[in-house]
Amino acid sequence: MPGFGAGDINDDQRNLCMQHGAGSLVFQYSYLNHHITADTRVAYQNIEPQRAMIRLATGTSRTIDERRPQHLTRAHEEEAHRHPRVQSLLRKKMYLKAQIKGQDGNTIIRYDGTEIFEEYQRTKRAYESEF
Fold it and tell me: What does the alpha-carbon distance between residue 49 and residue 54 come to, in Å, rounded to a whole number?
């Protein structure tokens, strides 16, 4: 029957997950690897570990090709910028910015907490995400 420390998780990993053990804090935070590749739900829910799922989830970053392109070429950037949705969001973002700055010439951050500021931030995030 599984219990604390059963399955793929050892006592040190359990203590790290649950932040237990004042006597072993130096070890846990200084020497124990903080990348846990075990099913930590085992410690909390007293269930069988899902080894295949954990193996898949923790191995994802190792399968990313380090040589993959990480930046757009100038041509791709221009193409993305011309996309209709990107252009629409850019226009809305610029309109809101002009509304804020046109009120009294202050910076946008001075309107933090107002509805127009929040709408500007949402639009800005949507634009950057879409771009």
Answer: 8
| pLDDT tens per residue across span 38-97 | 667 777 777 777 777 777 766 666 666 778 777 888 998 899 889 999 999 999 999 998
Neighbour count for residue 15 (Cβ, 10 Å): 20
Number of H helices, E strands in the chain: 7, 0
pTM as predicted: 0.47
Q: What is the DSSP string of 16-64?
A: HHHT--GGGHHHHHHTS-S---S-THHHHH-----HHHHHHHHHTGGGS
Provide the angle, in degrees to the nearest 10, between the axes of the packed helices 115-130 and 84-104. 150
- Alpha-carbon distance of 123 to 22, in angstroms, equals 46
- For the chain, the domains span 11-63, 74-130
Instruction: Using alpha carbons only, give the angle 129, 67, 55 rounded to the nearest 5 degrees.
Output: 80
